[in-house]
Design a protein that fits this description.
single chain; 338 residues; alpha/beta; Quinone Oxidoreductase, Chain A, domain 1; Rossmann fold; 2 domains; 7-stranded mixed beta sheet; 6-stranded parallel beta sheet
């Protein structure tokens, strides 16, 4: 089979198309023919050698993908040949708290990911893809979708009528916007682009704040909420934006720390956490249980992931550069049928 390996660290140019033996499924394993895969910023960092953890190379990148089951191993009971499945990010986190996740079993590093013609999955680390989504759409779910769902519903217990503040218009932020709207929440989105804010409102956001025009954007959020603030905040910016998120938080709010696009350096005043009795938590994607719950909601509400751009899968290096430098609205996907 064909696969794209990261062969040495330090750059996207170190991705190489190679021939590998097609794996055969062992006990409780399934083999899928990959139909589509999706990129996350984690993949850029692993390729660049700037990720907080180093992995043995060569490595096949990408945690996210969807495919058709083409072979099953002994004692497989959850799937059959012909099923359309997505792999999970955490291979051994079936359910429960994060203590059940094992760092050595993350797809796309250290375990080989989806950037290949075929992928071998443990049957416990896969879910049936939502029937209402295309392969291109379903490929986006494993990391960004599950992260947003896990933050708002598994951990956050979102209630109708609450306010969700979703920072930016990347994959996690837009999934959070769509899920929150479906859950009956009010959604406020931030962006540096009025055009993106308008698109977000078309997709269901109630309000938008341009943080370039409003550097103290927390004040705009407070104004929009009558001084109350947001109950749930999807924080993807890192320490620089976290200080503003604290100021925009309602009493007893939940701040879900997901990314650090604004960098990893910054100062936070712990008194702001105390004053508002805020709960701040890291969201490490989510379990298979969260994935399956999310998929049910996607099907019932016909939620469609937002796709920014699609590349042929063999153009993975070009797609990673686009993700790294582009001004995205939604997910970047690789089509494995091209």
């Amino acid at each position: 089979m064909k696969a794209i390996e990261l062969q040495v660290p330090g750059g996207i140019e170190n991705l190489k198309l190679v021939d590998r033996p097609t794996p055969e499924p062992g006990r409780q394993e399934i083999l899928i023919k990959v139909k589509a895969s999706a990129l996350n910023y984690r993949d850029v960092e692993i390729a660049r050698g700037s990720y907080h953890t180093s992995f043995d190379l060569p490595l096949v990148l990408l945690s996210d993908g969807v495919g058709e089951v083409v072979a099953v191993g002994a004692e497989v009971s959850r799937f059959k040949v012909g099923d359309r499945v997505c792999g999970t990010f955490w291979q051994r986190w079936v359910g429960g708290s994060f203590v059940m996740a094992e760092a050595a079993y993350q797809r796309g590093g250290p375990i080989d990911g989806m950037l290949s013609e075929f992928a071998l999955l443990d049957e416990q680390a896969a879910v049936i893809a939502p029937h209402n989504l295309s392969d291109i759409e379903a490929a986006t779910l494993a990391c960004a979708g599950v992260t947003a769902w896990h933050a708002l519903f598994t951990e956050g217990r979102l209630k109708p009528g609450e306010t969700v503040l979703s920072l930016g218009t990347g994959g996690v932020s837009l999934f959070a916007m769509q899920f929150a709207r479906a859950g009956g929440a009010r959604v406020i989105v931030t962006s540096s682009s009025d055009e993106k804010l308008a698109r977000a409102k078309e997709l269901g956001a109630h309000d938008g704040v341009n943080y370039r025009d409003n550097p103290e954007w927390s004040q705009a959020v407070l104004s929009l909420t009558g001084g109350r603030g947001a109950d749930h905040i999807i924080e993807v910016g890192g320490p620089q934006s976290f200080a503003q998120s604290l100021k925009a938080a309602a009493r007893g709010a939940q701040i879900n720390v997901i990314g650090y696009l604004g960098g990893s350096e910054g100062a936070i005043n712990p008194l702001d956490i105390f004053r508002r009795q805020v709960t701040a938590r890291g969201i490490p994607v989510g379990s298979r249980e969260s994935f399956e719950a999310m998929n049910r909601a996607i099907a019932v509400n016909d939620i469609r992931p937002v796709i920014d751009r699609v590349f042929p899968w063999t153009a993975a290096a070009e797609a990673l550069r686009y993700l790294e430098h582009g001004s995205l609205f939604g997910k970047v996907v690789l089509d494995h049928t091209q």
